[in-house]
Amino acid sequence: MNMLYDSDAFAVVHILANAALEGEPEVDVGLHIPRHGFEIVDKRAGKEVYLDGSWAEMFQIQITAWQQNTPSQEEVEDTLEGYASLAQTPMVMH
């Protein structure tokens, strides 16, 4: 897991499926194709959405664009708000 963004309104975490933890050996998953995703938390609404598959690919393209042309915080949060509008899952503290 890598924290990509954290503000008063949003948090974005990149989750690498089947990634070995530090100090642990890689696990052979056979024919299973590891998938990664992004969790976007809307702190204001108390909801989160997990993007995987084609949604994660689209979000990765957005991140790459941000790396090339550094956006303002407002631009980032406007984009995150669009993705967060997909959120149906209330955040639950463990």
Description:
- There is one protein chain.
- This protein has 94 residues and is an alpha+beta fold.
- The protein has one domain (2-18, 34-90).
- Helices cover 30% and strands 29% of the residues.
- The protein has helices spanning 53-68, 73-84, and strands at 2-6, 10-16, 36-42, 47-52, 89-90.
- It has a five-stranded antiparallel β-sheet.
- A hairpin with a 4-residue loop joins strand 3 (36-42) and strand 4 (47-52).
- The longest helix is centred in the middle third of the chain and has 16 residues, at 53-68.
- It is globular, with a radius of gyration of 15 Å.
- The model has no long low-confidence stretch (mean pLDDT 82).
Ordered list of secondary-structure elements with their pairings:
Layout: E1 2-6, E2 10-16, E3 36-42, E4 47-52, H1 53-68, H2 73-84, E5 89-90
Antiparallel strand pairs: 1-2, 2-3, 3-4, 4-5
Protein name: DUF3567 domain-containing protein
Pfam families: DUF3567
Helix content: 25-40%
Major β-sheet strand ordering: 1-2-3-4-5
Please give the number of β-strands.
5
Instruction: Give the CA-based shape.
Output: globular
Q: So how many helices?
A: 2
* Strand composition percent: 25-35%
Straight-line distance between termini: 17 Å
- Please indicate the count of domains: 1
Average predicted local confidence, pLDDT: 82
SSE order = EEEEHHE
Radius of gyration: 15 Å
Uncertain regions spanning at least 5 consecutive residues: none
Structural class: alpha+beta
